Amino acid sequence: MIRKCEQHGYFRGEQCPDCANEGRYVLDDEREERLGRFVSGALRHFPEDVGLEIDPQGWVDMDILCKIMKKRYKWGTTERLISLVESDRKGRYEIDGSFIRARYGHSVEVDLVPDYPENELPYLYYGVSQEEADMLLENGIIPVRQCYVHLSTSFDKAMRAASIHTENPVIFEIDAEAAQEDGIDIVVVNDDIVLAKNIPADYISIRES
Questions:
Q1: Which residues pair with 194 in a beta bridge?
Q2: So what family is this one in (predicted)?
Q3: Can you name the CATH fold of 2-102?
């Protein structure tokens, strides 16, 4: 559930995490999930299919998105879209004036590198299945269903992300400092996720737990 605290803004749950105020109702769980799926698809995977024009950096006109959204969901107001973005703990989206985009997770081709800060962590992490590990150690990591490789900022975060897809993940440690010194762009999109176009095998090793 999404609610709004007049002092601290939109939040998810029953009480504002900053002041314990219950706030004002904005969106229930079912509608939050439905709206989230639509926005994810529209901004990451099939903007043209829903009638959106996406620019090279992934931005779309928020007014146009809202008009399309309201045709599908009569309850799909601009405030509810904004609440979805601002209350999202995973930082999936961002709004800049009259434009909105996904920060990561694209399957459509976008160029995010110029807009985000360069990674400063010496090591990053990436979880894979046991079956994939040997192949990636030999050939490097390239995106499969997305246009960027999504790296994690810590071992534990990589473990949690990989455990969604495989029961016993192998966690790679990426020598990000060396890769960046050699000209590979690696950029930060939020506290958990860092993006790269690819990670060659030379910078990959297995991290033991």
A1: 151, 188
A2: Belongs to the KptA/TPT1 family.
A3: Arc Repressor Mutant, subunit A (1.10.10)
